[in-house]
Amino acid sequence: MGIRAEQKEKTRRTLIDAAFSQLSAERSFSSLSLREVAREAGLAPTSFYRHFKDMEELGLTLVDEGGLTLRQLMRQARQRIADGGSVIQISIKTFMEFIERSPDVFRLLLRERSGTSAAFRQAVAREIQHFTAELTDYLEEKQQTSRSYAEMQAQAMVTIVFSAGAEALDMNEHERTALAERMTLQLRIIAKGADAYNKAKRL
């Protein structure tokens, strides 16, 4: 990559980080203006258009990055599982750490999942599909079950996790610990139910 291309990528990254930094429990992406993001990035508003067509393109980039960050963390969790430990407990611990460290990234995914922009809703749906597909791959391999059963189990687990994540955003540490314990039990019930069902189907 040449110096010019490096500088362009660095400036693009600055705009993305500037947008993320302005998100909060009280501030959604839809409330941000191009001028605010450019000012936070230390750029003139006209410079914005050298990197993004409009604010919607920037927002879609944030959604993609948020989903990718979560998937990468869960991949790391599966690597930790390979070294020994409870699959469900390690996965939940990793997910809750993501909520604690990047609450506004998760808020972005939640808000845009049911927002007014069809493009944003589709982007979040794709990220959830990617997340579910990776979990399906893992369950299919580890449980030696059919793709369809692994996918149904993954969908149920992802639904519970995302719903709990929304609750966790406004909880204190004690409440989050109790929530993690509840999630662990719920996911174990799903896993045991899936295992029992698979065994019954083989009979």
Q: Averaging pLDDT over every residue, what do you get?
A: 90
Count of β-strands: 0
Outline = elongated
Helix content range of the residues, please? over 70%
Largest sheet geometry: none
Descriptive account of the structure:
Residues 33-52 bind DNA. This is HTH-type transcriptional repressor FabR. By secondary structure, the protein is mainly α. 80% of the residues lie in helices and 0% in strands. It has 9 helices and no strands. It has helices at 3-21, 34-41, 45-48, 55-82, 87-101, 103-113, 118-143, 147-168, 173-202. Helix 5 (87-101) runs antiparallel to helix 9 (173-202) and helix 8 (147-168) runs antiparallel to helix 9. The chain starts with a helix and ends with a helix. The mean pLDDT is 90.
Task: Give the helices and strands, then pairings.
Layout: H1 3-21, H2 34-41, H3 45-48, H4 55-82, H5 87-101, H6 103-113, H7 118-143, H8 147-168, H9 173-202
InterPro entries: DesT_TetR_C, DNA-bd_HTH_TetR-type_CS, Homeodomain-like_sf, HTH_TetR, HTH_transcr_repressor_FabR
Domain HTH tetR-type: 10-70
DNA-binding region: 33-52
